[in-house]
Amino acid sequence: MNSLTIITPDDWHLHLRDTPYLQAVVADSARQFGRAIVMPNLVPPVRSCEDALAYRERILAALPANSNFEPLMTLYLTDNTRVQDIEAASDSPYIHGAKLYPAGATTNSDAGVTDLGRLARVFEAMQKHRFMLQVHGEATSPEIDVFDREKVFIDQSLERIRRDFPELPIVFEHITTRDAVDYVHAAERNLAATITPHHLLINRNAIFQGGIRPHHYCLPIAKREQHRQALLAAASGGDRRFFAGTDSAPHSQQAKESACGCAGIYSALSALELYAEAFELTADFTHFENFMSRNGADYYALPQNQGSVRLERQSWEVPASLPYPDSELIPFKAGESLRWKQMIDD
Ligand code: DOR
Ligand code: ZN
User: What domains sit in the chain, N to C, each tagged with a CATH number?
Assistant: First the structure.
């Protein structure tokens, strides 16, 4: 197979940052995707409808002329999120969920949730309005091994949320383990998961290959090979509860290459090509279009996109770096060659 044409895909988990960084990255996503669920972990976070709608306007203003890219906004849950914030957001056609960051779990999560018990009324309102909960699924107690955090979160937190709010629709974001794959497969309803291109393509060895590789550091951290294999099987296996969400998360070169480097991989430059690269490893593209372009829209109860995108088997080299305000941005697979290339028709 040398050519792939699919319905224009969506990115169900994306970090676009804010001005002036937003302007440096948004065109990459807009070139490949029709829509994206935009993460709210700005500083300060996107906590209210007003915040989300103002951020949306900044994103729209930063898009290239003639782009139809649609940012789907989210709220950032804190210990102090109010029921009326959820009610207002669920009435808005532009806001598509609220993100749970356990406090301290990842970049800009300090304002996140310290105690799930405090969110009972908020979850109740979300359940009532069928308003999506997007979950960063990692337990945060410092004594928990970093490679076990996703599994512990399932056992200690996700199971409890699902038991107490069985009608609350949840997306388990950027899953990284066989445990998470099995947990989603086993769920009867109201649970789906996004999978990133980097977790399909690298295991934890890539973080330490010949030295420490900060550009392979993200959260949740990449796991053992057996987990990557489980993710590949989930993405390509036809269960419609798995879909693409890049978690593309730009940080400046200095912020990554530092004594205490930030978590985040910039995959948006070539996300579609990276997913094709991953599916190629399974030698089975049967469910590629569903994973990229249908499953997420169906789960979010949104229409599928109208247009299409085309990829051809053509080797090309990912640039070593990209312009970024006051710095450079190092894309995932910088300097390496990829086997699939998006063809842009004029
Ligand atoms: O690696 C990550 N980077 N994981 C996250 O959960 C957040 C993201 C970011 O915002 O940089
Ligand atoms: Zn993320």
Answer: 3-343 (3.20.20.140)
Nearest ligand 1 atom, CA 251: 11
Judge if the upstream peptide bond of residue 220 is cis by omega within 30 degrees of 0. yes
Element (H, E) at 96: strand 95-100
Residue 251 has pLDDT above 70, yes or no: yes
- State how far the Cα of 132 lies from the Cα of 322, in Å rounded to an integer: 34
* Residue 108 Cα: closest atom of ligand 1: 10
Ligand 1: residue whose CA is nearest its atom 10: 107
Ligand 1 neighbours, Cβ below 6 Å, are 15, 41, 106-107, 136, 218-219, 247, 249, 263-264
Q: Which helix (H) or strand (E) holds 230?
A: helix 225-236
Residue 219 C-alpha to ligand 2 middle, in angstroms? 8
Which tokens in the block code for residue 31? 């070139």
0.85 cut: is pTM over it? yes
Alpha-carbon gap, residue 191 to 92, rounded angstroms: 23
| Pair 104, 71: CB distance under 8 Å | no
Q: How many CA atoms lie within 13 A of 184 on its CB side?
A: 28
Among 107, 207, 223, 252, say which to mutate for ligand 1: greatest number of ligand atoms within 8 Å of CB: 107
Nearest to residue 11, comparing CAs of 333, 345, 28? 28
Residue 209: helix, strand or coil by DSSP? Answer: coil
Question: Distances in Å between the alpha carbon of 297 and those of 203, 212, 291, 312?
Answer: 28, 38, 10, 25
Atom of ligand 1 nearest to the CA of 218: 1
CA of 217 to the centre of ligand 1 (A): 10
Phi-psi category of residue 319: left, alpha or beta, with phi > 0 → left and psi -120 to 50 → alpha:
beta
The residues annotated with a catalytic role in the active site are 247
pLDDT tens figures, 288-324: 999 999 999 999 999 999 999 999 999 999 999 999 9
